[in-house]
Amino acid sequence: MTFETRMTRLPLPFDPERGAAAVAAHCPEATGTLRDALVGMAGSSPYLEGLLAKEAAWFAAALEDPEAAFAQILAEVPEIAPDQIKPGLRVAKRRVALLAGFADLAGVWPLEAVTENLTLFADATMGAALRAALAPELRRGKVPGQGEADLPEAAGMVMLAMGKMGAFELNYSSDIDLICLFDQDRFAPDAFGEARAAFVRATRRAVGIMSDPTGDGYVFRTDLRLRPDPSVTPVCIAMEAAERYYESLGRTWERAAHIKARPAVGDLEAGAGYLARLTPFIWRKHLDFAAIEDAHDMRLRIRAHKGLHGPVSLPGHDMKLGKGGIRDIEFFTQTRQIISGGRDPDLRVRGTVAGLAVLAEKGWVRPEDAAVLSDHYRAHREVEHRVQMIADAQTHALPKDDDGFRRLACLTGEADVAGWRRQLKDRLAEVAALTEPFFAPERSASSPPPEAVPEGAAEVMERWRSYPALRSTRALEIFGRLRPEILSRLGRAARPDEALLNFDSFIKGLPAGVQLFSLFEANPSLIDLIVDICATAPLLSRYLAANSGVLDAVIGGPFFADWPGEAALAAELEARLAPLDDYEHQLDAARRWQKEWHFRVGVHHLRGLVDAQVAAEQYTDLAETVVSVLWPRVAAELSRRHGPPPGRGAVFVGMGSLGARTLTAQSDLDAIVVYDGAGVEASEGRRPLAPGPYYAKLTKAMITALTAPMAEGRLYEIDMRLRPSGRQGPVATSWSAFQSYQESDAWTWEHLALTRARVIGGAGPESGALAEDLEAFRCALLRSKGPGRQAEVARDVADMRARLEAAKPAERPFEAKQGPGRLQDIELLGQAAALLSGAECADTRLQLAAGVAAGCLGPEEAAVLTGQLALLRQVQTSVRLLTDGALDPDAVGAGGQAFLLRQTGRADMETLRADMAAGADAAAEVIVAVLTRWQG
């Protein structure tokens, strides 16, 4: 296809006679629409007309295959002789400007091709300039330890392309933004100063080669001011110094700038490593809604500095910085990426249109809004290019007079200037309408607290200024805008005074406020959730204050969707940990992930989306997922020192509530570890260990992985007292010793505990087979050790009940767990029924049913116990969401009481108390009767 057949639009001549004369003089062979396009270009752009006059012969040949002509320029740039570098690069720039300009105007190259080719040319010319500038330093030995052989990778120096150059989005007359760095690790400490001086000289010389005006013009204006603290730092600095700056002083705008950063010239591998180390600075691990206000403030400062405030008026309007312009779309996109990119690496793309696409795909931007902004971004950039094509001026301002607009419209191929201006103004207005509310949502007017808030509210609010979350001016400003709405919603709670006091405890526990308050401001629905929690579950509100990052999950994913199940949870946690090489980072990431899902279960339970039984199952799914995913990673970490697990491996066995799948929001994990050395003498590693010590270390490492307080808190407390020999025995039990002990030495209570045992995770080459063997052994043992032992089991259970009652008697009327006829008592009889019937099930309801099937219990007896069990489970799981102690109705307040009554279906707390007491009496009576009957 010829250039002419590829044309999709036609520039019109502002000055037809001038355009025709230029074409006749320089391209007399052009005919048809190609001639018309050339006349339009030369008749509307004095700059392109001038380039055509200088490069006519080359240009005529280039039009036969513009892509090949451009590729040839890129190939020739590195070959320019050092003594010809300045004129050679300028001739190349002339040709690229002419070719790209005409291909743009004629629609042969779409916007993305134009900006990408301009960027590729900038990379090539900047690389040539740096090599020409650095070569003399290397020849003269000014870069210690480096010679001319190190020139291809610039002896450890790299130029990072920032902004539009970094994203392959350079505009037609763009300057290029660079940060110049060098790898200090290449140099001994006493050589550092000399190396830095050489790199500074080379940087200045390279910039001069690019930007010094000569008779042939310039290549690119070059801006180095994006480097850290440019007023006091040299033009090329050590990577380590830059990293220290960003870690301690980096600002939001610098994070945004680094979204598009890429190594462009020099030591690209070192540059990539540097950016990788900077990832925690650019991409925060929590959703960062404070970035919205930073970006908004930056926009306002820019507009104030440039005098760009006020409504959109086309004459003189700045297409880049003005309202509804290019920068608004870029800020909108980058700010959204900054907010969410720490949690979702898919959002870490450089291009603006690409960023909008992935934000829409991930649900952060409405697809229709992303489509509109993408279309307008392209249209804005094309107008920007044509503004710059007129005179090669680094300007983004629209003309101020009618002739100027007519010339600009001609370059876009529009004869209807008035209609084109209306379309342009509409696009600017639509961009403003879509982006302004994101940066500056309507603020609630300040108003006094609503009447529903008690008179004591003023006294409570007076102490807020002393809390850590409200000590900064910025936090106070944001909270000041939120306070009327928060108080209004607190006032609508069932007990406004209780809700206010719980909210007071919530903000008192926050370590900082700017991020969280910004999150509330950007997502007002979260205020409803916080008020709901404060009005209902003070313990959950305290958990939230200590772990406010979990709110990311509320808006960063399908928080209110159905429970995904254990397999999907495991896949998600694996995906979260897979990119992390550091073991401690994996443990911290697991903690963040677990807290989010733990909070989700609590909120779903609190809001009635699930009942107590389902919540218990979900808490158990979550714990099992954490254990099953971390257990192999703990083993892998131990393997680094002592080799892979010897023998068949080890299994983590859930006991108690974990085995029975009845965990609550505050449950510990009861567990034992069983390993099989399979006759192997020792592990194969740098420091070999026999199986016993190896698996003891592995078990202790797993306990530490789950319980150690880290930056993100702890996962679970672990109770291993159910292992053979209790606290006195080894923390990990060998498979042979486990079998021998259970068959010959275990007490009745240990066999009872085994009725609720389940393998949760494994580590080792054959841990799956070990898990199967253990389950088969458990089932066979229960079948052999239970039936026919009613009298013995009954005596032991009666003795255990007496011991439990003496050690932990029921102290409060709403106690669900301890005491005759309460949870622990019913579960104990269920385990006994499972043992005597040889049943394999771990759930107490199923164990009681197995007892009925085996003739150990009567159906009516099982019905009494099962009914009481259901009520007490509802109470226990719900109470553990409200308080960390026994239920005190006054302490949990009206909201907590209402939640508990909804869960149990009771009309009031007195009815609930009475039903619990009556049920306990009835259950205890059944249990005594059953044990008496079993004893004969």
Question: How would you explain this protein's 3D organization?
Answer:
The protein has 936 residues and is mainly alpha-helical. The protein has 5 domains: 109 residues, no CATH class; 150 residues, Up-down Bundle (Four Helix Bundle (Hemerythrin (Met), subunit A)), CATH 1.20.120.330; 117 residues, no CATH class; 194 residues, 2-Layer Sandwich (Beta Polymerase, domain 2), CATH 3.30.460; 145 residues, Nucleotidyltransferases  domain 2 (Four Helix Bundle (Hemerythrin (Met), subunit A), Up-down Bundle). 61% of the residues lie in helices and 5% in strands. The chain contains 41 helices and 10 strands. The strands form 2 sheets. Strands 1, 2, 3, 4 and 5 form a 5-stranded mixed sheet that branches. Strands 6, 7, 8, 9 and 10 form a 5-stranded mixed sheet that branches. Helix 16 packs across helix 17 and helix 30 packs across helix 39. The longest helix is centred in the last third of the chain and has 31 residues. About 1% of the residues have low confidence. Pfam families: GlnD_UR_UTase, GlnE. Keywords: ATP-binding, Ligase, Magnesium, Multifunctional enzyme, Nucleotide-binding, Nucleotidyltransferase, Transferase. One of its GO terms (cellular component) is cytosol. GO terms for molecular function: [glutamate-ammonia-ligase] adenylyltransferase activity; ATP binding; ligase activity. InterPro entries: GlnE (IPR023057), GlnE_rpt_dom (IPR005190), NT_sf (IPR043519), PII_UdlTrfase/GS_AdlTrfase (IPR013546).
